[in-house]
Specification:
By secondary structure, the chain is of the alpha+beta class. The protein is elongated, with a radius of gyration of 30 Å. It contains six helices and eight strands, in the order H-H-H-E-E-E-E-H-H-E-E-E-E-H. The chain has a four-stranded antiparallel β-sheet. The chain has a four-stranded antiparallel β-sheet with strand order 5-6-7-8.
Length: about 240
């Protein structure tokens, strides 16, 4: 009976070692979770270029972007980002100090990507992390110039659509800005729009000219969101009430 009792502590120790997860493996799991958050941040149908996806991922805490394959999330196989993250773990039974690892993972960015998709383990490139410059500024809408040049219409008169169109054509605008002009009941509405990605708020400017009125304004942000009609020439002629 005594030999069996002596073997019991040894058996418990062996069993304990068998179920204990090595600290390096736990630290790697933590690094993988950081990489998974990159996929969560970039998940969805929103189109992204390689620069846009890389810049957004590189701005996340604890994430280095090592490589971006592909040109757009919507083209071909989409984008694949190779990111480097780190994780730490400590097991007081086996470790003298905290274990830290740096690992690389491939994150897929495409319309068919799954939510919380597990990043794929990959070898880290020998190169340095990519550096992304600031995002390009959107074209400036000529609010001040439009307000100064729109014609005034006296009470009892009618706005001249052709004159308003000449004013719009004479503005020194970025070619990316789209314009729309519409006449209705003696008034003329104007829309100047910077085409967006269909997900964030649109950048637009509205104006209306009519008897005794001349207004130029930017709709509230909520009205410029996807699915709203804030950035339309109809909203210039018939403005939606301000949000509460």
């Amino acid at each position: 009976m005594r030999p069996l009792l002596l073997l019991a502590p040894l058996a418990l120790l062996v069993a304990g070692c068998g179920v204990a997860e090595p600290s390096e493996e736990r630290a790697t799991d933590e690094a993988r979770e950081v990489a998974r958050t990159v996929g969560e941040r970039l998940y969805g149908q929103r189109p992204r270029t390689a620069d846009e996806a890389g810049r957004e991922a590189a701005g996340m805490e604890g994430v280095e972007v090592m490589r971006v394959d592909g040109t757009s999330s919507q083209d071909g196989d989409g984008l694949e980002l190779v990111v480097r993250t780190s994780g730490t773990a400590f097991n007081s039974t086996f470790d003298i100090e905290e274990v830290t690892v740096r690992r690389c993972f491939a994150v897929r960015v495409a319309p068919w990507s799954e939510w919380r998709e597990k990043p794929r383990d990959v070898d880290c490139p020998d190169s340095l992390p990519l550096v992304f410059g600031p995002p390009p500024e959107p074209p400036r809408l000529p609010e001040r110039e439009l307000r100064a040049k729109l014609p005034r219409v006296p009470e009892g008169g009618r706005a001249d659509e052709a004159e308003v169109r000449r004013v719009i054509a004479a503005l020194d605008m970025d070619p990316e800005i789209r314009s729309e002009v519409k006449a209705e009941d003696g008034r003329v509405g104007v829309l100047l729009l910077v085409p967006g990605d269909g997900f964030g708020p649109q950048d637009c400017l509205l104006a209306r000219v009519g008897p005794g009125e001349r207004e130029v304004w930017v709709p509230p942000r909520i009205q410029r969101m996807r699915g709203e009609a804030g950035c339309t020439v109809s909203n210039a002629l018939h403005p939606a009430p301000p949000p509460h």
